[in-house]
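#lab-general

N.A. 3:47 PM
ok so I finally got the sequence cleaned up, no stray characters, all 118 residues accounted for. can someone with queue access submit it? mine expired

B.Y. 3:52 PM
send it over

N.A. 3:53 PM
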Amino acid sequence: WGATVITNMLSAIPWIGQDFVQFVWGGFSVNNATLNRFFSVHMMTLHTNGSSNPLGLSSNGDKLPMHPYFFVFMGAIVGIVCYAPNLLGHSDNYIPANPMSTPASIVPEWPYYAILRA
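B.Y. 4:20 PM
back already:
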């Protein structure tokens, strides 16, 4: 859907817009040829030599290793989820749902408030 929306903006080009969109699509709609073309352009433009080092750092002293920080962070998340799941919860989550009444904390957006109060 995103490819359709973005490529349809090309149809705004005067005189050649519709033909150019069909050329980019590789047919009359977004299909496998379109996705192959987009992937090829993506690989040719973004995955070139040096594109994985956007800051241009050449020494390893300026870089952080991922492993210790990743495992500490994931260990904390797993610990909270497995051993203290209620730590980040709210007491309202334990109130049984009642489909016939709306909680007082839920209010409509302000432009619709006057319409719904009438």
